[in-house]
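> forwarded from #structure-qc
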């Protein structure tokens, strides 16, 4: 998997957040740069399980699939 990529998460209201990996750790940030919990990316429930699955993703496409699986069905998840 490439070392640098981001998953853009756009909710049904048009709010944007990003999931990304920095220093070996998955993080979420709002479009204005504010650090946020994964719930802002539509990932509710077992956030830790989602992070574990993201860490296990072998490709960028796998990581997006994890975000879609754990995320809101009304959100759009895409690589940017």
């Amino acid at each position: 998997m490439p070392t640098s990529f981001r998953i853009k998460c756009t909710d049904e209201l048009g709010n944007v957040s990003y999931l990304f990996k920095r220093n070996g750790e998955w993080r979420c940030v709002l479009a204005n740069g504010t650090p946020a919990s994964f719930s802002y990316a539509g990932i509710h429930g077992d956030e830790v399980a989602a992070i574990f699955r993201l860490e296990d993703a072998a490709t960028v496409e796998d990581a997006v699939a994890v975000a879609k699986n754990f995320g809101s069905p009304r959100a759009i998840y895409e690589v940017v």
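QC bot note: The longest strand covers residues 16-22. Residues 60-70 form the longest helix (11 residues).
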